[in-house]
């Protein structure tokens, strides 16, 4: 088996201890040829020095400002040397042999553009979080994850072509990034990996779920299930994804669903629960779209666009 260099990229924000737990699991893997890049997104209350102290082999990049999920990963991409890039959430841990199935798949399939492993919940290791995706529903503008919250009884043990990778863990060949461009930073948080998948597919590449590889996700440790930040970006970026990727009938269906059903329903829910900050965040995300923003602008990969 060939062992090309894999660059593992992870973003840290105020979670150095959690990141170190992820790095500890990476030290146990069997793949022999990798570099690990951690981008600290200008953590204001947590000193990332412990990462370098405990894991001196890691390339720790310090951003001078919080660039968001996409921007942080892009900073890592620009310093990566690998043939393959593997993006890994810092609130994850991996199985020792998780990289080999992914690398083997890409080595055999040059038209593959992006792939994610099986993702399971860290606290319930037999419960699946991700085993592929049916893609974005043209009515709702939301994605449906295959296998989510199912017990892992072997029903998703076959690798398949799928519509969307999962941003918690995904591999992309460097050559694909050079062709399609960097992760779209306009999202800042949420939906950016979905948009990137659409960019990759439009360039003629395919998206895959690799069942033989597995990682474990400590979901919602980095943002929180009901955070105001999540309310803002999930709603703002849902509409942003619709604007960037859907056209014609699909655009009007998704936009209509959002404005006529999702927006009134969520507004009523937050109002009845007296969650005024969430209600404000919901509408702030909507008003963002009234600004003169170049929503279709992407970032090309070049050797000179270091941030």
Automatic annotation (TrEMBL):
Gene3D superfamilies: Spore Coat Polysaccharide Biosynthesis Protein SpsA, Chain A. Keywords: Glycosyltransferase, Transferase. Transmembrane segments: none annotated. Residues 7-147 form the Glycosyltransferase 2-like domain. The keyword Transferase applies. One of its GO terms (molecular function) is glycosyltransferase activity. Belongs to the glycosyltransferase 2 family. This is Glycosyltransferase family 2 protein. It comes from Adhaeribacter swui.
